[in-house]
Design brief:
The complex is a heterodimer of chains A (297) and B (160). Chain A has helices at 2-9, 22-29, 41-48, 85-90, 92-97, 99-106, 111-114, 119-125, 133-138, 239-245, 252-265, 276-296; strands at 15-17, 34-37, 57-60, 70-73, 76-80, 142-149, 152-159, 164-166, 169-170, 177-184, 190-196, 209-217, 220-229, 236-237. With 297 residues, chain A is an alpha+beta fold. Chain A is globular. With 160 residues, chain B is an alpha+beta fold. Classes of the chains: A alpha+beta (297), B alpha+beta (160). At the A-B interface, helix 3 and helix 7 of A face strand 4 and helix 3 of B.
């Protein structure tokens, strides 16, 4: 069974392209018969194990400069799909305006993987445990996509809350390329924190991850955004817990009730990394820890 | 069988060419086509760092790197570290501190340490620990490894 499955998915690649421009890349993807290579750290493992098969063409997008760089204009920050996790970790704009992304990058895999793994790849891999996703959910980010339509480049933005449809699945069409991710520069006073579980400090695929953002004024929490990884088929926003926390004074009773609300929203599974019981336990532990962190500033 | 592509790259300072299947990983190319056996195949999924090499000045897991993507790039392996008949200072430090038992993980460990030394010379001892998180050793227990790398990088401070 396993052998035949892996035979069925381990296809040979007939064609290889490494376009230098976005328009050439979109042309290479137009028929929807291409596998996209960026950093390759997920793709290599998934294809060698037979979990993912190659399509007939391999399109290496790493030569496309248009997909690089982190910039700010018009009150928004744009992160190119090819920005590596190391670049996120060391970027001064990120450190100043969205330190939660640097904090996430610091917990991401290992130095060797951070050096090549890309933001676009981490999003498109659509793992429920993808480290970058909870912070981007809290930032209300949009995923930027492009494709060729009638010979011309067409683009669309999809809110990251609508991007994932299941484990490893997204709304990206097979002829589309994720070109980057963008979000509004957080308002003054906005504080966000990220936490993930794992007994080993490096290379942990989290049993639970969480990001919390908001503004605390006179001990009252406003503009609350809360997201979880690894407790549902996709990373998710915890809307009920957010609503519950909004406008509240952050005392012990509020936090206890917020944890109860959050636990109604999650649907974790038992797997090799953690049991349902332990994941639910961690949701409570981490939410308390993050609220305390945010209150302290 | 996947299609093959010719790539040109620099390997340990020398220009090289290779014709590689497009799904081949860099580790397999180095070991099987260039007979460079320093980088090791261990976990094959980026968890252990035994295959670490440096591509364009950044350390990478060669088991996760597509060989075809090395076209036009500069690849450095442990075999290319020493420029003369003397060991590279990082290699010398590992020997002097006895930071080697079976030796299997050492080429990866030394390449990662060299990357840290080249890119983050001011690292503290805790910073070194973080930098070496992606390298697993099953026999030394890491203390002597950290001593060796600290010595090579003149790191201040003591273990906590």
């Amino acid at each position: 069974m396993m052998a035949s499955q892996s035979k069925a998915t381990k296809n040979a690649i007939d064609d290889y392209l490494a376009p230098a421009t976005l328009s050439d890349a979109l042309g290479a993807l137009e028929d929807g018969e291409a596998t996209i290579l960026a950093g390759g750290t997920d793709l290599m493992v998934q294809t060698q194990s037979g979990r993912v098969g190659y399509k007939q063409r391999l399109v290496n997008i790493r030569r496309i400069d248009e997909l690089r760089g982190i910039s700010e204009h018009g009150g928004r920050i744009c992160i190119g799909a090819l920005v590596t996790i190391t670049e996120l970790l060391n970027n001064t704009l990120v450190a100043e305006k969205v330190p939660v992304l640097a904090a996430m990058a610091d917990k991401f895999a290992s130095n060797q993987i951070r050096n090549v793994a890309t933001v676009g790849g981490n999003i498109c891999n659509a793992s429920p445990a993808g480290d970058s996703i909870p912070p981007f959910l809290v930032l209300d980010a949009d995923v930027e996509l492009a494709c060729l339509r009638d010979g011309k480049a067409a683009t669309r933005s999809v809110p990251i809350t609508e991007f994932f449809t299941g484990p490893g699945r997204t709304v990206r069409a097979s002829n589309e390329l994720v070109t980057g991710i963008s979000f509004a520069v957080p308002q003054a006073g906005f504080i966000a924190r990220f936490i993930k579980s794992g007994p080993r400090p490096a290379l942990e695929i989290s049993a639970v991850s969480m990001a919390l953002g908001g503004v605390v004024e006179n001990d009252v929490f406003r503009s609350v955004s809360l997201s979880f990884g690894s407790v549902a088929p996709t990373a998710m926003r915890a809307r009920k817990a957010e609503t519950f926390l909004t406008g509240k004074k952050l005392d012990d009773e509020t936090i206890r009730a917020a944890v109860e609300t959050a636990l109604e929203e999650v649907s974790p599974i038992d797997d090799v990394r953690a049991s349902i019981w332990y994941r639910r336990h961690l949701v409570g532990v981490y939410l308390r820890r993050l609220v305390a962190d945010v209150v302290q500033g | 069988m996947s299609c093959k592509v010719e790539i040109k790259f620099t390997l340990n300072g020398r220009p090289e060419k290779a014709i590689v299947p497009v799904d081949l990983n860099l580790l397999a190319m180095l070991r099987d086509m260039f007979d460079l056996k320093g980088a090791k195949y261990a976990c094959g999924e980026g968890e252990c760092g035994a295959c670490t090499v440096i591509v364009d000045k950044l350390s990478v897991n060669s088991c996760l790197t597509f060989a075809v993507d090395c076209d036009g790039r500069e690849v450095r392996t442990v075999e290319g570290l020493r420029a003369t008949d003397k060991l590279h200072p990082m290699q010398r430090a590992f020997v002097d501190h006895g930071a080697i038992q079976c030796g299997f993980c050492m080429p990866g460990m030394i390449m990662q340490a060299t990357h840290l030394s080249d890119t983050s010379p001011g690292l503290t001892r805790d910073g070194l620990k973080r930098g070496l998180e992606g390298n697993v050793c099953r026999c030394t227990g890491y203390t002597k490894v950290l001593d060796a790398v600290s010595d090579a990088m003149n790191t201040e401070g003591v273990d906590q």
